[in-house]
What we know:
The complex is a heterodimer of chains A (206) and B (341). Chain A contains 7 helices and 9 strands, in the order E-H-E-H-E-E-H-E-H-E-H-E-H-E-H-E. Chain A has helices at 15-26, 41-54, 84-88, 112-126, 153-161, 170-175, 190-199, and strands spanning 2-7, 32-38, 57-64, 67-74, 98-102, 135-138, 165-169, 186-188, 202-204. The radius of gyration of chain A is 23 Å and the shape is elongated. Mean pLDDT of chain A is 86; it is low at 81-94. Chain B folds into 2 domains: 12-156, CATH 3.30.1330.10; 168-340, Alpha-Beta Complex (Phosphoribosyl-aminoimidazole Synthetase, Chain A, domain 2), CATH 3.90.650.10. Chain B contains 11 helices and 13 strands. The N and C termini of chain B lie far apart (46 Å).
Amino acid sequence: MMKKTVNAMGDPCPIPVVKTRAAIRELNGAPGTVETLVDNEIAVQNLTKMAVQKGYGVSSQQLGKDQYRVTLSIAGGIPEEDEPEEIVCAPVPKRGNTVVAVSSSAMGTGNDELGAALMKAFLYALARQEEPPAAVLFYNGGAKLTCEGSVSLEDLKDLEARGTEILTCGTCLNFYGLTEKLRVGGVTNMYDIVEKLTGAGLVVRP
Amino acid sequence: MPEDIVFCKGGGCTAKLGAGVLSRVLSKLPKGPADPDLLVGYDSRDDAAVYRISDDTAVVQTLDFFPPMVDDPYTFGQIAACNALSDIYAMGGEVKTALNIVCFPEKWDLNVLGKILQGGAEKVIEAGGTLAGGHSIAGDGVLYGLSVMGTVRPDRALANNRGRPGDKLILTKKLGVGILCTANRVGEASPEGMAEAIASMTTLNKRAAEIAARYEVHACTDVTGFGLIGHLREMLDGKLSATVRWKQVPVIGEAKRHADEFLLTAAGQRNRNFAGDAVRFDSVPFAMEEILFDSQTSGGLLLAVSPDQARDLEAELRTAGMPAAVIGELLEKTEPEITIN
């Protein structure tokens, strides 16, 4: 059983949590305990919150004025990854976590006029699905669909009202000069797009 | 900046004293006789005062300052000023004059101070006000903010606690800037995420307030250090309850990831300790709970608006480019005080 001690006295939040998680990673999946010393009760609470979320055993004692010890028991088995990105990229696919990626204002290739009509019909039908998707991402030509003049604004607002995240790529809005014209949903970045696509249970590309 | 200058140690509204501690101290202060011309005072726990000086004019007086929450002094100046000016907008007022409040270490490069003040001055001008002077002292760390004076028609002054059951709640900016700044301090925030947080914090609430003034808004506050839940509780004032639909709450996407990595502030936990018992979470993800308690710097306005006008107000705010959303509603007082579902 490995035991590690972390001194986080004098460290403001979130440093005690950051140091403690680094020590847990050093256990490399072996069972062990990590004791963290902190100088305030709020840090104890933030460490406890982390432990509860992560399923670790946790207890804490006040050792003196402005001195607390938080003891975490880690069962071991699954090592904590070094990079949070790796956790993000390996989620358990959940039923219902559907992400729709719209990369063009037209659906399919062939005739663009037909493609635009198909996209309108697609979004109309999407907004009326019993189980709406978790998110709809708009990038490149797709960015025009969330902006002023789009025929699908009402459908997208309906989706948003039902809890679907409507997100448009900020770089794309900027490229097309549409930054001021976004009319539904929020702006997103590539990091978030990657996270959403890789974390999705199902990615739908019309 | 020279390397030995640690400009940002974790500031902004995350540096605020906890609401619990504060209310214990404030409740013991002596009170003079009530002045009928003081329309909004600290009894309602507002962070600004509204004082009637004639039948058609009241003065709004506010004060706000804090340590840096970003590394760039100019950006810090802009954010601190936006945050201070916001109190005037939360009262439905117009900005008239502002005075700088500065604490700055004597031995530091004065150009850093110059950048802070430049950022602040630009925002005062953008707000339509005049920077009329200020007061500076030498000290160990950096603090900057403004005392702002504005005016409002007494019958148009917005209190934070006059919402009515049935009113819809609208939030005009995304939550999560506190967590983003914290993640940035430990090198975890992406440049895009920080850019989004900074863009939000350097946006004045002026436009939001101007648009809201054309609607039947019963109560208004700006969401700052006590987080959305803390400021919503001030709005409820022990007389109302509220439900918030967490999926409707505008959030900086990246903040969820950092909250799941436990890059949490002490301020957020203090907010949870103060308000936690009054809130029931119905299957709300952990990260979202944290974001709802996250201490905001220069956050958006939280408006309680007549239900028949809420969608129109939301649409107009969005047309003006804000990520505004109807996030819930006020109810007759019930248990629990706040339900998040």
